[in-house]
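Many introductory courses stop at the sequence. We go one step further.
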Amino acid sequence: MGVRVTSGRSLLAAMMGVGMALGAQAANVPDLGPLPPIKVNKAKAELGKRLFFDKRLSGDAAIACATCHDPKQGWTQNKPLSDGYPGNGHFRNSPTMVNVAHKKVWNHDGRIGTGLNDMTREMITEDYIMNMDMRIMQERVKQDPVYLKMFKDAGYGEPSNGKVRKAIPEYLKSLTSQNAPFDTGKMSKSAKRGLTLFKGKGGCIQCHNGPLATDEKAHNTGVPENFDVFLDPNNHQAFIAFAMFQGIENFMNIKRDPGYYNVTMDSADVGKFITPSLRELKYTAPYMHNGMLKTLNDVVAFYNMGGGMDSKKSSLLKPLGLSKAEQKDLVAFLLSLSGDQLTSAKYVWQGAYPAEYPVIENWKNVRN
């Protein structure tokens, strides 16, 4: 952990970094394709939807899941680093919730691979995220007559924290890409040329493959570190809370996000991050695990140069020599992987909530 170089994460993983020589190897990985259908229980998903937008699921009833996963911002936050629990910030970019139910590993570092139930629990209970005691959450839910009926109608019976962790993932199943040009066959000529580059000269498909356009593996691509994590006390205290819980050594002195290292505790994995999906990129800028690249043009240019500077960078990444026109075509293809914005009442809870828990505006000014 004594490495003080820029960190890496793949938005396009080895997307821009494998060169023409790897194009022939593309047949060894799954091809891109449509997302498989997911069966959704309507009553359970409707309950999960109300829970996802309910601020009472956080410790001081100030934020909901939807605060950091805003439907109007591509189910993320259009800022480099996500918000955290009131009184602190965060140390990573907020990922989109669209297609999250199709994934097999979660978090930028891939530390959860056991299901959305566990992912939901972590987001609700972590003190730098929603800071909720599950026992208190259960009692809050049980005090709401609307929830009592919705849990019963969903076949869950009486509300419990375990059932909350089931209902929210059921709702997330409904957040699936809709009508992307890539899926409907309505790609522009430029996007089609970009697809050819994606599978060939760019070698992108080496790590961005399958229906989600991700291998869901960890790679280091040399993405520059976002030092706002360490220079802003609010962000840094979230990083410290995370690092302490994960058992990362010397966390007060490191000035980089360890990434996949905190899963394996193998120094070879410092700066590796899980290959993200390329779907819905149109709505989810800025990019990378720390929001360091503002636009898709920036991302393509970054990988065209062979990624960033990092002693542990993947050997797959090499300068590509793509022309301006080729880079433009590649961006056009990436945009074709984005479909309709999921912002209608079908996906977004629009009802009111009881306001029996007044929000503390600023925890820093609280005095006993």
